[in-house]
Design goal:
Distance between the termini: 31 Å
Largest sheet: 6 strands, mixed
Number of strands: 8
Low-confidence stretches: 1-5
Mean pLDDT: 86
Strand order of the largest sheet: 1-2-3-4-8-5
Order of helices and strands: HHHEEEHEEEEEHHHHHH
Helix content: 40-55%
Radius of gyration: 19 Å
Strand content: 15-25%
Shape: globular
């Protein structure tokens, strides 16, 4: 285990303070080896109070020797061997339907074994938690299932591969609405769920927790610089955009251009900096 007695500069400390569960770095550190809280959010999203999570992997690599590989945010398995992929997306282009389809196929590819009968394929869930209501229908959850479309009726195909989009804009006074409010909140003292607030408080306010966050940020940025990965470059661009927004000298359009970020993402960042309590 690495030494957590490290110096955290003012800029890093401020950045850690601003992070929310909808932000990639914080989400991944928060749920790493955290079966209890993954189980907690899955029970709420799926309305299954008896769901028991047995395994959790963060940033799980799925290799594809003949094509594109994938790194999934959180992959979990429950006591019935159902498999769950939870992804958080701030920009709508990161949660397009074909990406959900790709993630679902990667779960199947990893689960199928040589000689396995197709009937043995596990039930899978790909769950996108999005900062915006990307389908603009004001639904708290969008459930996507394959269907058989006949002349007079529509029947469920029932391949047991499910895709869900959870609307982060849901602010209803329901269990799911309160969970989404917590995902958008940077202040642990203003979160509804005490178990999530306790872990967030540790990572933001405890010396050891902040050190874990700082090391994870450094690892991600170094990974981006050394290997040219898009995730590291994106994290650095977001960090720069936040600084420019706080400075207040550039327009949102200029910041998007300077940092090479989608305009909608910079607009979301501006809302976070100016309206989310910190």
């Amino acid at each position: 285990m690495r030494n957590t007695n490290i110096f955290i500069d003012e800029e890093t400390a401020e950045q850690i303070k601003e992070y929310r569960l909808i932000d990639d770095i914080f989400f991944n550190v928060f749920f790493d080896e955290n079966k209890e809280d993954v189980q907690f959010i899955l029970r709420i999203i799926l309305d299954k109070k008896d769901l028991i999570v047995t395994e959790v992997t963060v940033q799980k690599q799925f290799k594809n020797i003949r094509g594109r590989s994938a790194e999934l945010d959180v992959v979990a398995k429950d006591s019935s061997d159902k498999i769950y992929n939870i992804e958080i997306q701030r920009a709508s282009k990161g949660a397009i339907p074909k990406r959900a389809r790709f993630h679902s196929s990667m779960l199947d590819s990893a689960a199928v074994k040589k000689g396995m009968d197709y009937e043995q394929l596990p039930e899978t869930y790909v769950i996108f938690i999005t900062e915006t209501d990307i389908f603009e229908e004001n639904e708290p959850i969008y459930t996507i299932e394959r269907c058989i479309i006949g002349k007079n009726k529509v029947k469920l195909f029932d391949d047991m591969a499910h895709i869900l989009y959870v609307n982060g804009q849901n602010k209803e006074d329901t269990e799911l609405g309160r969970l989404m409010q917590d995902f958008m909140c940077s202040d642990p003292n203003k979160m509804h769920n005490t178990n999530l607030a306790e872990k967030a408080r540790f990572l933001k306010e405890n010396e050891g927790g902040r050190a874990i966050m700082a090391m994870s940020m450094e690892d991600l940025f170094n990974k981006g610089y050394d290997k040219g990965t898009s995730v590291g470059k994106h994290a650095q661009a977001v960090s720069g955009a936040i600084r420019l927004i706080k400075r207040g000298k550039d327009s949102i359009e200029e910041i998007a251009d300077i940092m090479e970020l989608p305009l909608e993402e910079v607009i979301a960042l501006e809302k976070q900096v100016k309206t989310i309590p910190v």
